[in-house]
Amino acid sequence: MRLTSKFIAHGAATALLCAAAAVWILRSGEPARATAASGEVHPVWTETDWPFGADPWGKGKAFRCKADDCGGEVQLYVRAKLGFCNCATGVADDGDLEQMGDLALIGKATPIGAGRQIIVGPMRGRSRAYRIEGNRNAALSLAFNQRCDMVAATALVGSGAPASLEPAVLAFLNSDRMLQWAEIALGL
C-alpha cells in the first residue's frame, strides 16, 4: 500500500510539472513584460541577508515573499555581474542563461521547458523555469543585461506556490526600487 501512495504522489507531482511546462511553453512566443496585475498572488517582498558565501561576483540582494503573500514561500536572489555578459548579443538564448545565471547557488537544476525573452526596464534578457533536484522546490532563473554588464536573478519557489510566479517576480524587478538598484549596481 505504501509503494502505491508514493507512486501516486510522484505521478501527481510529475503531472503538475508537465502542466506548468505546457503553460510556460505556450506563453513563450513573445517577450514578457511585467504589469501591475500579477495574477492570483499579491507578493510582498522583504529584504533579507544574503545567505551565500563569497565568490567572484560578491554579495547580492536577497528577498523573501511569505507563503501568505505568494501562495508558498519564495526566496529571490539578485546580483550584478559586471563585464560578464556578451557585449554584442547579451543574454540571447537558453545557453547564455545557463552560463550567466546563478542557479549554481541553489543546487543542481533541470529545465522544465524552454526559456523566454523578458524585459526589465531598458534591459532585455531571458527567463526559464527549473526543477531543483533532491527537493520539492522549483526555481526561476532570470538574467538581463545593459551592454556588457548584467543582473542575474534566481527565485527559489517552495511547494504550495503557484506554478508560475514569473509575472510577480518580473513586476518586482521592474519596480522603481529594483530599477534604481540596478542602475547603481551596473553604473548606468
Structure report:
The protein is of the alpha+beta class. Helices cover 29% and strands 29% of the residues. It is built from five helices and nine strands; from the N terminus they run αβββαβαβββββαα. The chain has helices at residues 2-26, 67-70, 94-100, 166-173, 176-186, and strands at residues 32-33, 45-48, 61-65, 74-81, 109-111, 116-120, 123-132, 138-146, 149-157. Strands 1, 2, 3, 4, 5, 6, 7, 8 and 9 form a nine-stranded mixed beta sheet that branches. The protein is globular and about 40 Å long. Mean pLDDT is 76; it is low at 7-39.
Brief account:
This protein is an alpha+beta fold. It has helices at residues 2-26, 67-70, 94-100, 166-173, 176-186; strands at residues 32-33, 45-48, 61-65, 74-81, 109-111, 116-120, 123-132, 138-146, 149-157. The chain contains five helices and nine strands, in the order H-E-E-E-H-E-H-E-E-E-E-E-H-H.
Basic shape: globular
- Unreliable residue stretches: 7-39
| Helix share, percent | 25-40%
Q: Name the CATH architecture.
A: 3-Layer(aba) Sandwich
Radius of gyration: 16 Å
- Beta-strand percent range: 25-35%
Mean pLDDT: 76
Number of strands: 9
Keywords: Signal
Signal peptide: 1-21
